[in-house]
């Protein structure tokens, strides 16, 4: 199957929407599968993010099973540089913030290699641009820089982050 065919099929296979409060545990389960323990969002923090900012989650739900296949989430702010506290303090959320700190792009292993992460990011960028946001920021490991560059992000170099004891790149995507 070609990449174009895969992209075309995604809206037929998945529903893209905001997360629902009752999906917090499922999201936390997916986070534990997708990230090592030192990097994963805690269950409590996942619940807090969903409670405070459900509109900043974009999920892909499998149309056949109704289960989540993956999601992208963040917190809006007027800050312009990523800091580790965004991972641990949902109180930093500013609903009117012009920037979004992306906190996790999670796709279950059985759904990888189909363009789902790219589609989640594309839809998220469109949605946040339409909402008047200015910039998306994220941190990623060196091995993911190229992937995010293909999604429209620019590598800003080493991030001011020590999350999980790793060295991160800060990446930026201007929406305007």
Question: Quick recap of the structure?
Answer:
This protein has helices spanning 3-13, 24-34, 43-52, 85-88, 116-130, 145-150; strands at 14-17, 57-62, 68-77, 99-107, 135-140, 154-158, 169-174. The chain has 176 residues and is an alpha+beta fold.
Topology of this structure?
Layout: H1 3-13, E1 14-17, H2 24-34, H3 43-52, E2 57-62, E3 68-77, H4 85-88, E4 99-107, H5 116-130, E5 135-140, H6 145-150, E6 154-158, E7 169-174
Parallel strand pairs: 4-5
Antiparallel strand pairs: 1-2, 2-3, 3-4, 5-7, 6-7
Describe this structure in words.
- This is GNAT family N-acetyltransferase.
- It is globular and about 40 Å long.
- With 176 residues, the protein is an alpha+beta fold.
- Strand 4, helix 5 and strand 5 form a beta-alpha-beta unit.
- The protein has 6 helices and 7 strands.
- Helix 2 crosses helix 3.
């Amino acid at each position: 199957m070609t990449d174009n065919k895969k992209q075309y099929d995604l809206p037929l296979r998945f529903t893209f929407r905001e997360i629902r409060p009752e999906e917090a545990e499922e999201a936390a389960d997916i986070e534990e599968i997708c990230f090592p323990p030192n990097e994963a969002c805690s269950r409590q923090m996942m619940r807090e993010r969903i409670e405070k900012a459900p509109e900043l989650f974009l999920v892909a739900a499998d149309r056949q099973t109704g289960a989540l296949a993956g999601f992208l989430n963040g917190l809006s702010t007027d800050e312009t540089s990523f800091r580790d506290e965004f991972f641990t303090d949902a109180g930093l959320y500013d609903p009117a913030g012009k920037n979004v700190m992306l906190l996790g792009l999670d796709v279950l292993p059985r759904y990888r290699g189909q363009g789902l992460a790219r589609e989640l990011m594309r839809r998220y960028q469109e949605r946040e641009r339409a909402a008047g946001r200015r910039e998306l920021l994220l941190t990623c490991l060196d091995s993911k820089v190229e992937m995010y560059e293909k999604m429209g992000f620019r590598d800003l170099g080493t991030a001011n982050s020590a999350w999980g004891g790793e060295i991160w790149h800060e990446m930026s995507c201007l929406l305007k």
